[in-house]
Amino acid sequence: MTSRGRGVAGFVGNAALNLAAIGGLICILLVAAAFLLNVTLVMFKTGSMAPTIPTGSLALVREIAAPEIRVGDVVTVSRTDALPITHRVTSVTSGPSAAERVITMKGDANLAADAHPYSVSTVRRVLGSLPGLARVVVWFSNPLVLGSLALGASALVTWAFWPRDDRGGPGGPSPLTGVGEGNVPPAERNPRRRASSGIRRRMAHVCAVALVGAALAVAGPVSAATAALTAYDAPPPDLTPDHPTEQVIVGGGLRLDVIGDQKQMHNLDPDGSVLWQVGVTANEADPGAVHVTLAGVGNAGLRLFSIVRSCPERFVGRDCRPGVTLEQPAAAVAIDGVERSIATLSATESRWFLFELWRHDTELSADDDTVSLALHAFGSSDSVSTASGRLSGLPRTGVDALAPMLYAVGAIGLGLLVAFGAGVRARARTPVPAPSRSRP
Q: Which residues cross the membrane (predicted)?
């Protein structure tokens, strides 16, 4: 390679190392600012605060004392029995002590306020939010992305500590200066100055590599608490369907009208319940009863709960004009595939069943925590069935804080190991000069 090409390669390598070091320094400064100013990030994976803070937003929050809370503030409240909840303050009253307040809150997208007030001494006030940034955080938390960053950092470490000859000898030109043999700057022709310059460069490399490792270690665990996760024994406020779909299934003597929002069912918001409605119309030619059953299959880790109501007419929300009959109180949905009876109709009766579904959980569900409900209506001469589709919770977000640390240590260690091996090999291949003989 010509000295010009080597100079370009050295410039590119230095630029990459400097940029990575700057990124590491920014990460360290952000962590220090978060610690000193009591600011953190909250990632919204639910739509309870839409449209003010839509799903997928990343919000900056700052801890404040309870006496500073004002009605209208959007705050995050920490709880001992569940993950934090982020909603808008609707009222503030005096608490058990001068430093405490009792507040009530409500999500902007929720139809009703939170079930219970909160007694707090500190909260985290939302200072601002940017939509869509939560997806970036999730992307950086992906093991493939972290692995790629680790490989890049390892390559930089290897380059920084690769054995070289600053004089432009057999080891090649210094990637730091891009200077080839016979073109050594005058300032570095003195051996002492050259040695001092090499030490300074090596120390600069050590600092830069340390900052690269810091960037990799800090970038991973940026993911933060999500909004509004709690455990509900009674159903939380039902969410207004965004994209309801209707399906009609007609048999010989039975008809099913199925209404539900598949998007909400696929991402069960832990801050609200979803409604699945099935109308059963019987017109059996043969006299006899029509039986309606429900079976659940899937992963019990979703911890799906339900209330089953019925009405002679179609429901509007949770309401029905002729009157609502409670078929099943709030209870966990059995996930064993066994059909269980809901109701029995006459051969000419029509009835609508409303299934209110929610998660009874204080943790984000795993990606494979899914459930499907199957409703089966059958009489003496006909049988029809329908399924709810895939019911699943919000996937787990973030990464274990230990993982990025291991990536950082592994990247630096691998880079140093490769560079050390290259140095050993270079020294082994360097011929040992023969001792000079003095004349008698």
A: 12-37, 203-232, 401-420
